[in-house]
Structure formats: structure tokens, C-alpha cells
Write a structure and sequence with these properties.
Length: 276
């Protein structure tokens, strides 16, 4: 291209540019609900917040004046929640565990608005054992101890799972720590051992592993969340968008974000003593 052609092309590109000013302030106070109902009473809680403005450095505003309860749609029982100032969450007024096989409904009443979501507490797979083995540094893998989980998934449907790891009393919650899997590659993933490749440990570490069996809607939310966390906003990345919420507005105006997780959970703890 000669200089004249280059200059004409440059002027054309410059003339096509238009400054876009984004209003990043929250135009609507949209509540965010993070609710968990499991067969482990210590995990049952509801957190409700309002998001902060984009440029705000403060934490999200905690909502502490909502009415919250979970209904057992199978038995008709209702479990009321109360806000705990210590935990900054809504907790059941009684130490209550969900029952496997039953269906549950979350209801949140916030002023004149009501939000609801449902889920079934599915039976868990079997978790037989957890082993660990030291591995030298490999391509894309750090040196350290790696866990392998053995078990059995006997179900032909509704196979949506999350593995959550706590190391030495610290929950691993970075974007790379969300380990989700379904039956895309079959249900034999635990039969011959499922190595947790993304997690390395050292001798002396105390590792708690939790295996959740989720409903599809909760799995989709978490999967969308992971995709959003890894979205770098680059040219080849899809436009960022909120994860698909499984909570709906049943009364009142506006929107709601977040999700209701109904899940069975298996929990095991391993202390990395050294070579086995």
C-alpha cells in the first residue's frame, strides 16, 4: 500500500471511531440471593446482598430485614430462618438437615417483593476412599501431592456435581478452584480414581473434600459463574453476562440474581502425612 492509500485508510478508521461513555452506576437495586440447603445442617444458610456501584470500594450491602423460610414440598413442613449478626447470614432457627429424596422451596420476602426457587435433595453417589501421591513438576502441573477420589456413581440421570476443597481450614474459592463435572464422559469417572489435577498439597496439609450432588439449575449457575470469572473481556471472549439465576420473582417489580443450591453432600478429611 502506498503512503496515500495508508493515510486514506487511517483517516477512514479514525472517522469511524465514536466515544462511548458507560454509566457504570447501578440503575436498579437488584438483590443477590445465595442460598444453600443440604443434608448437612452446618451448611444451610442464606445470604442476601445488594451489589455495590462499580467504583465503590465498600463491601456489598448486607440485607438483614428480609423474611426467609424453606418449605419441604414433600412433607409440607416449613423451616423459618433468622438473621445472624455474627455470621451475616440467615440461619435456620433450628439445627435442621434436609432429607434426601424430598423437594424444597426457598421463599424470600423483601418488602413487597417475593422471590422463590425449588430443588430436590438428590441421593449422593458413594465415596469409597481418597488416596494421595507425590508427583514431580510436570508440564502445566506443579510439584506436590495430588488427591485421587474413588467411588461409584450409580445414577443414569441428574448427574451434576461440585467438588469443594478446604486446605488447613481455608476454603479454596479462587476461580480455578471451582471443580464441576457431569456425566458428559460417562458415569465411571470415580470407578478407577478421579485425580484432582488442579489442586496440589504439601506434607502436613489437612485437606477436607466435599462432594455435592446438585440440581441442573444450580450446576448451570456455577458453570456460568466460572465462565464469567475466566472472561478476560478480550476480542475473542463472549460479552460478559450474569450467570443464569434459578430464583424467580413471584411478586413485585424488578429482578433478582443469585441461586438456590439444594444438594446432598459427602465429606471426607485427609491429612497428607507423606509418601504412602
Amino acid at each position: 500500500m502506498n503512503k496515500v492509500g495508508y493515510l486514506i485508510g487511517l483517516l477512514f478508521l479514525l472517522s469511524c471511531q465514536e466515544e462511548v461513555i458507560l454509566d457504570l452506576r447501578n440503575q436498579e437495586r437488584v438483590p443477590i440471593i445465595e442460598a444453600s440447603w443440604t443434608d448437612n445442617p452446618s451448611l444451610n444458610r442464606v445470604k442476601i446482598t445488594y451489589p455495590r456501584d462499580y467504583y465503590d470500594t465498600l463491601e456489598n450491602e448486607i440485607i438483614n430485614d428480609a423474611e426467609v423460610w424453606v418449605s419441604n414440598l414433600t412433607s409440607g413442613e416449613e423451616i423459618p430462618f433468622s438473621f445472624s449478626e455474627d455470621f451475616r447470614r440467615y440461619l435456620p432457627r433450628r439445627y435442621f438437615a434436609g432429607r434426601r429424596g424430598d423437594s424444597y422451596q426457598l421463599t424470600v420476602k423483601l418488602g413487597d417483593r417475593i422471590f422463590q426457587s425449588e430443588g430436590t435433595l438428590l441421593h449422593p453417589p458413594s465415596l469409597d476412599s481418597i488416596t494421595y501421591q507425590f508427583r514431580e513438576e510436570r508440564l502445566f502441573s506443579d510439584e506436590g501431592y495430588y488427591l485421587t477420589v474413588f467411588g461409584k456413581i450409580p445414577f443414569i440421570e441428574d448427574n451434576y456435581y461440585r467438588v469443594r476443597i478446604t486446605r488447613n481450614d481455608t476454603l479454596l474459592s479462587g476461580r480455578q478452584d471451582y471443580l464441576l463435572f457431569d456425566d458428559t464422559f460417562g458415569t465411571s469417572i470415580l470407578d478407577n480414581g478421579f485425580e484432582l489435577n488442579g489442586f496440589t498439597f504439601r506434607a502436613g496439609d489437612r485437606v477436607k473434600l466435599e462432594l455435592f450432588r446438585l440440581n441442573r439449575s444450580a450446576f448451570d449457575f456455577l458453570n456460568d459463574l466460572v465462565n464469567l470469572l475466566f472472561n478476560d473481556g478480550g476480542l475473542f471472549s463472549p460479552p460478559p453476562q450474569n450467570p443464569r439465576s434459578n430464583i424467580r420473582v413471584v411478586q413485585g417489580p424488578g429482578r433478582v440474581e443469585g441461586y438456590f443450591k439444594v444438594a446432598s453432600v459427602l465429606s471426607e478429611t485427609v491429612i497428607i502425612a507423606g509418601d504412602q
